[in-house]
Amino acid sequence: MRDTPQKPHEQLAEALAGDMDAVNALIRKRMASEHAPRIPEVTAHLVEAGGKRLRPMLTLAAARLCGYDGPYHVHLAATVEFIHTATLLHDDVVDESKQRRGRPTANLLWDNKSSVLVGDYLFARSFQLMVEPGNLRVLDILSNAAAVIAEGEVLQMTAAQDLKTDEAVYLQVVRGKTAALFSAATQVGGVIAAAPEDQVQALYDYGDALGIAFQIVDDLLDYGGDTAATGKNVGDDFRERKLTLPVIKAVAAADDTERAFWKRVIEKGDQQDGDLDHALELLAKHGAMDATRADALAWSEKAKTAIDTLPASDLRDMLHGLADYVVARIS
Amino acid sequence: MRDTPQKPHEQLAEALAGDMDAVNALIRKRMASEHAPRIPEVTAHLVEAGGKRLRPMLTLAAARLCGYDGPYHVHLAATVEFIHTATLLHDDVVDESKQRRGRPTANLLWDNKSSVLVGDYLFARSFQLMVEPGNLRVLDILSNAAAVIAEGEVLQMTAAQDLKTDEAVYLQVVRGKTAALFSAATQVGGVIAAAPEDQVQALYDYGDALGIAFQIVDDLLDYGGDTAATGKNVGDDFRERKLTLPVIKAVAAADDTERAFWKRVIEKGDQQDGDLDHALELLAKHGAMDATRADALAWSEKAKTAIDTLPASDLRDMLHGLADYVVARIS
Question: Quick one: pLDDT at residue A1?
Answer without folding.
Answer: 45
